Amino acid sequence: SVSQARYEVVEWGEPVYGVEELAAVYDKGDILVYPSVAETGEAMPLAPLEGMARGLPVVVSNLEVFREYLVPGRNGVSFEHRGGRAAENLADALAKLIEDPSLRQAMSKEARATAEKYAPGKISNLYLKAFEEILRI
Question: What value, to the nearest 5°, has the Cα angle with vertex 20 and ends 16 and 65?
Answer without folding.
Answer: 65
